[in-house]
Amino acid sequence: MKELARWLKATAEENRLRMLYLLSRHGELCVCDLQRALDISQSSASRHLRTLREAGLVADRRQGMWMHYTLIEADELRAGMLRELLTTLQ
Question: Global pTM?
């Protein structure tokens, strides 16, 4: 139950939803790409991405000094919920 609540809280913020949408469209993005696309500071982008990672929505990998993010494959319920959320952003 706590895991689902964390997942729902992570998706209940506009910039995090926009990040998920961009990742769903582009596959993998650098934190700098997300920062520019959303016109937010690097620290704000990193904070939002940490929340998404802790909720099990994104995975990260380091390349040089930059972190790159991708969506994590979710179970059927969460995948369907995420698909519905992202459809509303189109």
Answer: 0.85
Among 23, 32, 22, 27, CA closest to 63: 32
Long-range pairs of 73-82 with CB within 8 A, sequence gap ≥ 24: 78/7, 81/11, 82/11, 82/20, 82/57
Quote the tokens at residue 52.
């998404």
Q: Which amino acid is at 33?
A: D
Q: For 45-86, what is each residue's pLDDT tens digit?
A: 999 999 999 998 999 999 999 999 998 886 676 777 777 777
Which residues lie below 8 Å from residue 67, measured CB to CB, with a gap of 6+? 30, 31, 46, 49, 60, 61
